Amino acid sequence: MPGCKYLYMSIRFVVVACALFVVANPAMSAEIKVMASPAAVSALKEVVPQFERTTGHKVTLDFAVIAALKRKVAAGEAFDILIPSPELIDDLVSQGKIAPDTRASFGRTGIALAVRKGAPKPDISTSENFKRAMLATKAVGHSKEGQSGVHFRDALNRVGIAEEMRPKLRALEGNDQLIALQNGDIDIIASGMGPIMEMQGADFIGGLPPELQSYVRLSIGVSATSKEPEVARALHRFLMSQTLVPTLKARGLERE
Questions:
Q1: Does residue 129 share a domain with residue 96?
Q2: Are residues 84 and 30 in the same domain?
Q3: What is the pLDDT of residue 201?
């Protein structure tokens, strides 16, 4: 009957409106926590404030290399959204710690290099140029536990200078990389594109040559025990929106 059809549409409109009210009403604002790989740092710092302004919710960002994220989750640290490696997400889904329907590929970021601000930038546009630039350095810093360090060392191996570079490599984490660069203890930092874009006091050289480039891949999932599941899922939908693709890419994270 026509009347029933209109009644159904009206009820559906009210339900949708109420759901949006719960997610976006500032009077009902919530706080949620995102734990993520540093590979996503530049992208998340760019787009998460948009979600906060639109919804009134507060999002805390906690960045740690994937090995550290695994330890945090195993220790019972609470989170609402996790953005680590695909392997860790899959493992946590099997443990019942990540809601299976929220598991998705989030993106990938390549390995890049940076020098101290104002320092000359070596040419790394080809494998041979990269090899020459690395051999000319005094010391190079890379992630101690992060996947970017693994990929960078693999690039050295692929151009045949892994052994020659071994005495020059400095395994560092977080701000220690930038401090070492600014102090002159290292000439170059090798890290993910996103983290390098966030380094104040460093100049971006560029990504590894295409033939040497490797990627840190990330997946995303919502905690199965989130205390704010609706808000967490709203942020998940926002982060996975196709409208964000150009912005994420500009911040070093590309969708596959």
A1: no
A2: yes
A3: 87
Give the DSSP letter string of 4-66: HHHHHHHHHHHHHHHHHHHHH-GGG--EEEEEE-GGGHHHHHHHHHHHHHHH--EEEEEE--H
Please state the domain count of the chain.
Answer: 2
Q: What is the pLDDT of residues 126-179, one digit of tens each?
A: 999 999 999 999 999 999 888 899 999 999 999 999 999 999 999 998 788 889
In this structure, the answer to whether residues 192 and 221 fall within a common structural domain is no
The boundaries of the domain holding residue 188 are: 110-215
> Nearest-CA neighbor of 248 among 208, 220, 212, 214?
220
Place of tokens 């549409």: 9
Question: CB within 8 A of 169, min separation 6: which ones?
Answer: 139, 140, 141, 142, 153
The rounded mean pLDDT for the chain is 89
